[in-house]
Design a protein that fits this description.
By secondary structure, this protein is of the alpha+beta class. It has one domain: paralog of FGE (formylglycine-generating enzyme) (Alpha-Beta Complex). The protein is 19% helix and 20% strand. The strands form 4 sheets. The chain has a 5-stranded antiparallel sheet. The longest helix is centred in the middle third of the chain and has 14 residues. The radius of gyration is 18 Å and the shape is globular. The site of one calcium ion has 8 residues, from loops.
């Protein structure tokens, strides 16, 4: 299973840029949202455009040649590569939602997360002493490693992420008319991650050239997770890093590769072949899509095309989210 590749076998068992905003829409390249209490959140404009989503047969062949221990089935859901048009520009969080931003929401809305309520099970999945386990006292407040307010929030479920988005919609009085905060569709996410690139990563196909681009399972992490395939460079972080510590991609987005996995809006399902406009994923499923890999992900998983999934109530120590502000209803 691909889960094994990620290192979460036990958990998964549980489980050509173009176009600019339309007339009337504010062509604000960067938006700063005031969340109150001195807390702000930055979003950048992602232009409308087309891209190739997923991986070609040749991509998958090259991945298997690079990592001979990997199994073809782990990457089967990246195919077929297909052309996607995103017909409308949208804004996307420049960073993953941070601990400080999430705390602002929790305090303003009086919200309790699934981990804290014990929805389905108590706590969250964490990594302790180099091993994955369910910890009943884990939550976004205690992911079993140290975080400051500028680290990405983790151990939040898809439901928790949606509650944050609901709160944003209700509380951002400066939001443009007709636009809505939401989680990114999987297509928006991959388009934004690639930012015009067609390679495995934003920096090309060579994992060894990724230093400075992201926080992943690197030589720093190898000291703690000695049994895993790691990137051949040091990023200085075993667990999460403050958001924006590494290079921005062509759209000005940070940490699309690594740091925390990011929940998407879509239900998970196989890709349909053929050209598509504004796809929104499977009609239904048991699991929601997450993208981008994390501090716990090695080179095969960190690629722009990788797809992963959890149930909407699951919460995991390397999984957070970012938001989009897009034209139309939620
Ligand atoms: Ca790292
Ligand atoms: Ca990320």
């Amino acid at each position: 299973m691909k889960a094994h590749w990620q290192g979460w076998a036990a958990l998964a068992l549980l489980a050509a840029l173009g176009g600019w905003p339309e007339a009337g829409e504010q062509a604000t390249k960067e938006r700063v949202v005031d969340l109150g209490g001195g807390v702000k959140m930055g979003l950048v404009l992602i232009p409308a455009g087309t891209f190739t989503m997923g991986s070609t047969e040749a991509d998958i062949k090259a991945v298997l040649a690079k990592w001979p221990d990997a199994k073809e089935e782990w990457f089967a859901d990246e195919k077929p590569a297909h052309k996607v048009m995103l017909s409308k520009a949208f804004h996307m969080g420049k960073h993953e939602v941070t601990v400080g931003q999430f705390r602002r929401f929790v305090e303003a809305a009086g919200y309790k997360t699934d981990a804290e309520k014990g929805t389905g099970f108590k706590g969250a999945f964490v990594v302790a002493d180099g091993k994955a386990k369910l910890a009943e006292d884990a939550s976004w407040r205690n992911p079993y490693f140290k975080q400051t307010d500028d680290h990405p929030v983790v151990c939040v479920s898809w439901n928790d992420a949606r509650a944050f988005v609901d709160w944003l919609n209700a509380s951002d009085k400066a939001k443009p008319a007709g636009s809505t905060y939401r989680l990114p569709t999987e297509a928006q996410w991959e388009y934004a991650c690639r930012a015009g690139t067609t390679s495995w990563y934003q920096w090309g196909d060579d994992p060894d050239k990724g230093k400075g681009w992201c926080n992943a399972r690197d030589l720093t992490a190898k000291k703690t997770f000695s049994d895993r395939t790691v990137f051949n460079w040091d990023d200085g972080f075993v667990y999460t890093a403050p958001v924006g510590s590494f290079k921005a991609n062509g759209f000005g987005l940070h940490d699309m590769h690594g740091n925390a996995w990011e929940w998407c809006q879509d239900w998970d399902g196989p890709y349909q072949g053929g050209d598509q406009t504004d796809p929104s994923g499977a009609a239904s499923s048991e699991v929601r899509v997450l993208r981008g890999g994390s501090w716990y992900s090695g080179p095969g998983v960190l690629r722009s095309a990788i797809r992963f999934w959890y149930r909407p109530g699951d919460r995991v120590t390397d999984l957070g989210f970012r938001v989009v502000l897009a034209p139309g209803p939620r």
